[in-house]
Design a protein that fits this description.
The strands form 2 sheets. The chain has a 5-stranded parallel sheet with strand order 2-6-1-7-8, with helices on both faces. Strands 3-4-5 form a 3-stranded antiparallel sheet, covered by helices on one side. It starts with a strand and ends with a helix. Helix 3 (55-64) packs parallel to helix 5 (101-115) and helix 7 (145-153) packs across helix 8. With 219 residues, it is an alpha/beta fold. It is globular. The chain has one domain (5-196): Rossmann fold. Strand 4 (73-76) and strand 5 (79-80) form a beta hairpin. It is built from 9 helices and 8 strands. It has helices spanning 16-27, 34-48, 55-64, 88-98, 101-115, 127-131, 145-153, 161-181, 203-218; strands at residues 5-9, 30-33, 67-70, 73-76, 79-80, 120-124, 137-142, 194-197.
Length: 219
Amino acid sequence: MRKLIIAIDGPSGAGKGTIARTLAQALGYRHIDTGAMYRAIGWKAAFDGIPLDDERAVADLAQRADLVVEGDVVSIDGHDVTGAIRSTEIDKAATSVARLPRVREVLVARQRRCGEGGGVVMEGRDIGTVVFPTADVKIYLDASAEERARRRAGDTAHTSGRAGREAVAASIAARDKADTTRAVSPLTVAADAVHIDTTGMPIDQVVEKVMTLVRQRSS
C-alpha cells in the first residue's frame, strides 16, 4: 500500500492532536505536530532571553535548533519540553513566533523534510495549504467555540473550573483571530480539504471518517 501524506488542519481545540495520533497509530505512520514546533521555539526563545518580536534572532534560533517533534516527545537542544510547552504562557509565545515570516519559512522547510516519502500524519494550521498543498488526504477539523473551550479547559495543562473555562475561551478566541488574520500562512480551509465538524462527535467516528478517505486515496 502506498504511503500517504495526510494533512490535518484546524483551530485550537478542534481535536487535531487526538485524531492525528489515533490515525497515525492505526496506520503505522509517523505523527508530527507542527504546532509543537512553534511552541518549542517560543519556549527556547524565552529560555534564552530572546525577545519574541526579534524576527531575525528567533529565525536564527529556529534554523540552528536541534528540534525533535515526533509522536509524544518534544525536545529542543537537549531539553525535554513535552510538558513545558503545554501552557497558556507558551500558547501566547507560539502565537507570537508563528506570526514571524522568517520563522515560518524555516519551520515549513523542516516540516517538508519530515514528511518526505509519505507515511506521515501531520497536523497544524497550514499543512494542506502551505506545507503540503499536494497532500494525498486533507482534513480540516473544526468544532463550536463552546466545545473547543470545554475540551481545552478539561486539559490538565490549562486551568479548570468555570474561571478556567472562561480564560481558556478568551485565549482560544484570541488565537483564532491571530491565526486567521496573520499576513503569512493564515489558518484557512484548503479548497480540496474535507471539512469535519467534530462537535459532539465521538473520536472513533471521526477516525473512521478519515480512514475511509485514506482507504479511497490508497487504493
